Amino acid sequence: MERFFTLEALKTVPYYHLCIELILIYCIYWLYFSGPQRDRRRRPELTEAEKQKLIDEWEPEPLVPIVEEPQDRIVKQLPGSKIIVDGDECLDFGSFDFLGLNKDEAVVQSGMEGIKDYGVGSCGPRGFFGTFDAHINLEVELANFLGVDEAILYSYGFSTIASAIPAYAKKGDILFIDEQSNFAIQQGAKASRSTIRWYRHNDMDHLKELLDSQAAIEAKNPKKKAKVTRKILIAEGIYQNTGSIAQLKTMVEFKYKYQVRIFLDESNSFGVLGESGKGLTEHLNVDVLDIDLISAETERAIPSIGEHSNAFDLTGDEISPIKHLLLTHPNNNENLNAIRSLVQSAQAQGIALVSGEKLDQDRTCNNISIRLTVSAAFSEEELSSCVDVLSSLIKQLTVSKSSI
Amino acid sequence: MSSKIEEEFEQPPLWVLVVMYTNYMALYIFGYIADFCRRWNIGKTKKMAQDHKRNKGFSPLHDEFASFFTRNMYMRMRDRFNSPIQSVPGDTFELMDRKSDDQNWTFYFTGKAKKSLNFGSYNYLGFAENTGKCAETAEKTTEEMSCTFSSPRSELGTSKKHLELEEIWSAFLGVEATITFGMGFATNSLNIPAIAGPSCLILSDELNHASLVLGIRLSGAKTIVYKHNDMQDLENKIRNAIINGQDRTFRPYKKIIIVVEGIYSMEGSVVNLPKVIELKKKYNAYLYLDEAHSIGALGSCGRGVVEHFDCDVNDVDIMMGTFTKSFGAAGGYISGKKNIINYLRKTSHAHKYACSMSPGVCEQIIQASGAVASGQGKRRLVELRENALHFRQRLKKMGFIVFGNDFSPVVPLLLYVPSKIALFGRLMEEAGIAVVVVGFPATPIESSRVRFCLSASHSRAQIDQCLKEIDRIGNILQLKHSSQRKLTSNKS
Ligand SMILES: Cc1ncc(COP(=O)(O)O)c(C=O)c1O
């Protein structure tokens, strides 16, 4: 053994062998040091004067582009299902007040009592004396109502799911998300830096395909799978962007087959679906304990209307309180203006609608639609008047079929 | 009085650091022993949090170190956080008494409550009140306009109240326009992505609040972090960024935005605004100023750090802030040039997708900012200033290491050793004083601290009572590490 570590050893190896090794060592040296050097040749050291010149020459873009002033509609709430929008008295088919609780006497009273007891602000985050007994009581009540272990309150609807996702999902995890998910889910997924696999809207076959391909990847590398990669399936109870209902039963089946967790955003279905308003799980008879996380924004209610026309597809499941009149023609400026003017004329006729316009950063910005939300406060007549107004307006509407 | 930008960050003596690391080591070792016992069901050690039985075989929800830390360190002092109260968080509040029979894994309430002095809430100007003009008008507005509009601002969530608030606020700050949102955190995290995007550069202070960090991350811009309030470091980094351009492509950045806070709430330090503005002008960068803690707390009329340094508001491109702290309300605002605000009305995520501010909250802000502008409000400002200065100087005299700026209403006192965090909090609570103690991960691992938030509603007697207790407990826990005390006492 010792011989290998002494100079003796060198003498015994053949001469050509040493030559080849020296050449190899040189190659390694060359590869290692030449790379950055070539780079340096491209970005040579600048002199101070050159640096100063670069700095002087640098011109930023304006912070924001010049835009015209957008006009938000000014709303005043009236008792019942009416609101005044920019001076027109309208039926409210635009806000998310599904149960019509906004103007409920008891709700408003308890809001006022809250101020009497605690003042307006909490003056601190939950961790530092911003937790009140009222918070705790509500959390316990919610958890009992839903039949889950625990509930947590957030102070801002949008932030709820958007911060719940990155709380669990981290870099390297895999999220399976419906393509038509709302913007809060998209932002939460982005904040988590996880890998995102989008499946086609409510398409369980596509979801299965994606889960299968993930399973195949994991089968190749079983160690990694068990240790680190969390897989989470994110869906909405009722999709805000389309009004359809998630196929929760199939998802729960997939959950155990592929070991994915399910996060369900029930913002539009909590208080709306199910016998007692517990949401989609109750509606579809799914055990809540099979869902890993449920989040919800506000409270809403049931009835439904329908209207078909050649220019629009009506989307939204029968039972869902959100309907979208989805333009079947491409999203261009002309059509956008057509939609806007439709919303305007409906308002003049006493129906307040919302055009489902999205921000450019939203994945779903390509479908433009008119969103109708139905509230429990509506009477039969009010609903049918809405249908009448809409159908006459849609008949007048001309949509351009060309895409820009 | 010291100059406005003077800031203190005294280093502790070496032996304190040695004790601190030994303490961490002990916690770590005992953590492992406890985990071992849990694993083999030895003793009464509480089981770790467990996934639902049905989820057997799923990959764990939390990574190993984070849950080791939660189980073995956080759990030991969990009673110090999220303590519920059952009254207005004014100068005093009713702290609910809770107990745990299973080493802080679950709590139950005894039904009793203890009246405590409140040195933990960000109630700088004392507007956390349930009586008086603010609360009454807020109540009336709620009655008239209900609790919410259930709709985003850009759809059917805008009312006259919202517009009134925005107008009043623009006048208060002396800017062209304002846009308001229902939550301060979301104001940052949902608006920075509307302003910055890839191929922009954001220079961010290392101690910036989580909401700013999240917003910057969501924007996709290149981020460079500079040392806390270190203007030399900031300048070097801007220079290098302009010279080198973007990573990989070397193209020049489209725009450079400097993101700073007015008062850093963990450090009690105040941003060196004149210098930041100077740099911003020199290098053509834009400035985003988060005044969450400084608005209402600094400046002779409560207009924040800009007024404090006598700077020009027009030099700050984006004035952001929250109503949660000084104004006893909720929500946040962004103020600035008209075009910037118009652009945000078009592109802000929060304006488009999140429900609008509650009308009662709008009213509270309108009333509170009106009060600040009046004589009564000026008195609150002066009281806050005097309380904060008195408190800070007494602590220094006693020999504690205190961080930050003399003008800050937040006063952090350094504890260093992790096991003193919980003990300090508990002893203070026994003495009837509620304080906020923080350790890793909210602060760097070697600077655990207790943080006092002064308020205009504290009376001198209350402050002196608090100081007396701190002095007593500081002696018990041996916290008086400052070397300055020895210097001054030698001199005198
Ligand atoms: C600097 C800073 N920005 C934003 C926020 C968030 O404000 P809010 O509590 O209103 O969500 C805070 C809160 O602590 C803060 O310190």
From TrEMBL, chain A:
Assigned keywords, A-Z: Acyltransferase, Lipid metabolism, Membrane, Pyridoxal phosphate, Sphingolipid metabolism, Transferase, Transmembrane, Transmembrane helix
UniProt enzyme class: transferase
Record flagged with keyword Transferase: yes
EC number: 2.3.1.50
Pfam families linked to this entry: Aminotran_1_2
Necessary cofactors: pyridoxal 5'-phosphate
Domain of life: Eukaryota
Keyword Transmembrane in annotation: yes
The reaction(s) this protein catalyses: L-serine + hexadecanoyl-CoA + H(+) = 3-oxosphinganine + CO2 + CoA; dodecanoyl-CoA + L-serine + H(+) = 3-oxotetradecasphinganine + CO2 + CoA; tetradecanoyl-CoA + L-serine + H(+) = 3-oxohexadecasphinganine + CO2 + CoA; octadecanoyl-CoA + L-serine + H(+) = 3-oxoeicosasphinganine + CO2 + CoA
Aminotransferase class I/classII large domain sequence ranges: 89-276
Residue spans crossing the bilayer: 15-33
Pathway recorded for this protein: Sphingolipid metabolism; Lipid metabolism; sphingolipid metabolism
Record-linked PANTHER family: CLASS II AMINOTRANSFERASE/8-AMINO-7-OXONONANOATE SYNTHASE, SERINE PALMITOYLTRANSFERASE 1
Stated family: Belongs to the class-II pyridoxal-phosphate-dependent aminotransferase family.
Protein function: Component of the serine palmitoyltransferase multisubunit enzyme (SPT) that catalyzes the initial and rate-limiting step in sphingolipid biosynthesis by condensing L-serine and activated acyl-CoA (most commonly palmitoyl-CoA) to form long-chain bases. The SPT complex is also composed of SPTLC2 or SPTLC3 and SPTSSA or SPTSSB. Within this complex, the heterodimer with SPTLC2 or SPTLC3 forms the catalytic core. The composition of the serine palmitoyltransferase (SPT) complex determines the substrate preference.
The protein, known as: Serine palmitoyltransferase 1
From TrEMBL, chain B:
Catalytic activity: L-serine + hexadecanoyl-CoA + H(+) = 3-oxosphinganine + CO2 + CoA
Cofactors that this protein relies on: pyridoxal 5'-phosphate
Gene Ontology CC terms, in alphabetical order: membrane; serine palmitoyltransferase complex
EC number(s) on file: 2.3.1.50
Keyword Membrane: yes
Gene Ontology MF annotations: pyridoxal phosphate binding; serine C-palmitoyltransferase activity
One GO term (biological process): sphingosine biosynthetic process
Enzyme class, UniProt record, top EC level: transferase
Aminotransferase class I/classII large domain: residues covered: 115-470
Transmembrane residue ranges: 12-34
Domain of life: Eukaryota
InterPro entries found in the cross-reference section: Aminotrans_II_pyridoxalP_BS, Aminotransferase_I/II_large, AON_synthase_class-II, PyrdxlP-dep_Trfase, PyrdxlP-dep_Trfase_major, PyrdxlP-dep_Trfase_small
Signal peptide interval: none
Keywords: Acyltransferase, Membrane, Pyridoxal phosphate, Transferase, Transmembrane, Transmembrane helix
Family: Belongs to the class-II pyridoxal-phosphate-dependent aminotransferase family.
Protein name as catalogued: serine C-palmitoyltransferase
Organism: Oikopleura dioica
Source species taxonomy: Eukaryota, Metazoa, Chordata, Tunicata, Appendicularia
